[in-house]
Amino acid sequence: MAAVRSKICGITRIEDALAAANAGADAIGLVFYPKSPRAVSVQQARAIVAALPPFVTTVGLFVNASRRELDETLEAVPLDLLQFHGDETPAQCEGARRPYIKALRVRPGDDLVAACRAYAGAQGVLLDTFVAGVPGGTGQAFDWGLVPAGLPKPVVLAGGLGAHNVAAAIAQVKPWAVDVSGGVEASKGIKDAAKVAAFIAAVRGAAAP
Q1: Selected catalytic residue, list 9, 16, 116, 179
Q2: Angle CA 131–58–189, to nearest 5
Q3: What is the pTM assigned to this prediction?
Q4: Whole-angstrom Cα distance, residue 189 to residue 208?
Q5: How many CB atoms lie within 10 A of CB 116?
Q6: Which of 16, 26, 116, 128 is catalytic?
Q7: Active site residue 9
Q8: pLDDT tens digits, residue range 163-208?
Q9: Which of 33, 84, 89, 175 could in theory staple to 63 by disulfide, Cβ–Cβ 3.0 to 4.6 A?
Q10: Is 128 a catalytic residue?
Q11: Within 13 Å of residue 203, how many CA atoms lie on the same side as its CB?
């Protein structure tokens, strides 16, 4: 199996970003959604991004942000990739004029193939757990059997992952990458460096030949 990438989302502190990078994370996620307990200010995000070593992708998570909010954030913070986690249309995602992935909250009956085709400009889709009224970060896993093989976009698997189950998730879904937030925390927004390292080790072990 090809190497599976790992993203540690909901980073709020420089030390947590560096712990993730040192453990081998391919990407870190910064949440620009004020209602989230893991939200960061533009100032926090700038400091975190500036502290990172090279070759760690910085991902900005947005939920139904206005064009003005997006533009102001992107002007202030040098993000590599955008993650749209709300009800954004393909046109709204494309309008940001940046590389992006689109989060899809999975529930029975969803046509994930059609959703991938709708967001044709996305670099990938992030599959997360559907919980009514909550855009993400629930810490709950969904039925991985709902993910069809051969989706036309690279899959980033999220939702309730941790060192205890990520190998099984990778074996079943065969994603391009996995995304974790609550599963590696000491408390909301505060990462546990040992849990981060264990998660990334489990990802690498699962993908090893």
Answers
A1: 9
A2: 50
A3: 0.94
A4: 30
A5: 20
A6: 128
A7: yes
A8: 999 999 999 999 999 999 999 999 999 999 999 999 999 999 986 6
A9: 33
A10: yes
A11: 28
